[in-house]
Amino acid sequence: MDNLFSEGLTLMAFGMGFVFVFLTLLVFATGIMSRLASRYLPEPAAKAPKARPQPAAAGTASNNDELVAVITAAVHKYRK
């Protein structure tokens, strides 16, 4: 029983050691690739957003009033 337990502990130590080494190498490799990508592939310059046409001011008041009325009616209908 003692031999089986020690073999289990040895296998666990090797497995955990392997995972630790692999993850450490993965962190370093990711960092190196990040530096290389930022050096050789810089981000493109941001483009200015296109100006959208402004809606007419005369029609917005009636549209908002109608929208408020519709929302109010829906709330009253489903609140009961």
TrEMBL record:
<feature type="transmembrane region" description="Helical">
    <location>
        <begin position="12"/>
        <end position="32"/>
    </location>
</feature>
<keyword id="KW-0812">Transmembrane</keyword>
<keyword id="KW-0739">Sodium transport</keyword>
<comment type="similarity">
    <text>Belongs to the OadG family.</text>
</comment>
<dbReference type="InterPro" id="IPR005899">
    <property type="entry name" value="Na_pump_deCOase"/>
</dbReference>
<keyword id="KW-0406">Ion transport</keyword>
<keyword id="KW-0813">Transport</keyword>
<keyword id="KW-0472">Membrane</keyword>
<keyword id="KW-1278">Translocase</keyword>
<keyword id="KW-1133">Transmembrane helix</keyword>
<keyword id="KW-1003">Cell membrane</keyword>
<protein>
    <recommendedName>
        <fullName>Probable oxaloacetate decarboxylase gamma chain</fullName>
        <ecNumber>7.2.4.2</ecNumber>
    </recommendedName>
</protein>
<keyword id="KW-0915">Sodium</keyword>
<dbReference type="Pfam" id="PF04277">
    <property type="entry name" value="OAD_gamma"/>
</dbReference>
<comment type="function">
    <text>Catalyzes the decarboxylation of oxaloacetate coupled to Na(+) translocation.</text>
</comment>
<dbReference type="InterPro" id="IPR023424">
    <property type="entry name" value="OadG"/>
</dbReference>
<comment type="subunit">
    <text>Heterotrimer of an alpha, a beta and a gamma subunit.</text>
</comment>
